[in-house]
């Protein structure tokens, strides 16, 4: 179930010009919580989740927020 949701979030992010990056760290550290970060495709700067602390629910919330910002501008 999470894999399907992961794919859905990745596609949504791509439509918004973003990239959903999953941590590949094998252990937890202060700078890496082994979850997700969202980057801009254009320059690979991290927009949300600098420490890879986002779970899929938070990713969905961030994508909604980013999409609303794009529509407002």
Structure, described:
- The structure is a single chain.
- The chain has 73 residues and is α+β, with helices and mostly antiparallel strands.
- The chain has one domain.
- Helices cover 42% and strands 18% of the residues.
- The chain has 2 helices and 3 strands; from the N terminus they run αβββα.
- It has a 3-stranded antiparallel beta sheet with strand order 1-2-3.
- The longest helix has 17 residues, at 56-72.
- It is globular.
- The model has no long low-confidence stretch (mean pLDDT 91).
Write the layout of secondary structure elements.
Layout: H1 2-15, E1 18-22, E2 36-40, E3 46-48, H2 56-72
Antiparallel strand pairs: 1-2, 2-3
Helix pairs in contact: 1-2
Concise synopsis of the structure shown:
The chain has helices at 2-15, 56-72, and strands at residues 18-22, 36-40, 46-48. The chain has 73 residues and is of the alpha+beta class. It has one domain.
What is the CA–CA distance across the termini? Answer: 34 Å
Structural class: alpha+beta
Whole-number count of domains: 1
User: What amount of the residues lies in strands?
Assistant: 15-25%
Order of helices and strands: HEEEH
The number of helical segments is: 2
Taking all Cα atoms into account, the compactness measure Rg is 12 Å
Residues in helices, as a percent range: 40-55%
Give a short account of the largest sheet. 3 strands, antiparallel
How is the largest sheet built, in terms of strand order?
A: 1-2-3
Mean pLDDT figure: 91
Q: Which of globular, elongated, flat, extended, rod-shaped describes the shape?
A: globular
Low-pLDDT runs of 5+ residues are none
Number of strands: 3
């Amino acid at each position: 179930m999470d894999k399907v949701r992961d794919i859905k979030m990745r596609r949504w992010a791509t439509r918004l010009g973003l990239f959903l990056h999953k941590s590949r760290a094998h252990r937890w550290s202060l700078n890496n919580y082994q979850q997700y970060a969202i980057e801009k495709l254009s320059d690979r700067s991290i927009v949300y989740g600098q420490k890879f602390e986002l779970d899929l629910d938070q990713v969905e919330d961030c994508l909604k927020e980013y999409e609303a910002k794009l529509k407002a501008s």
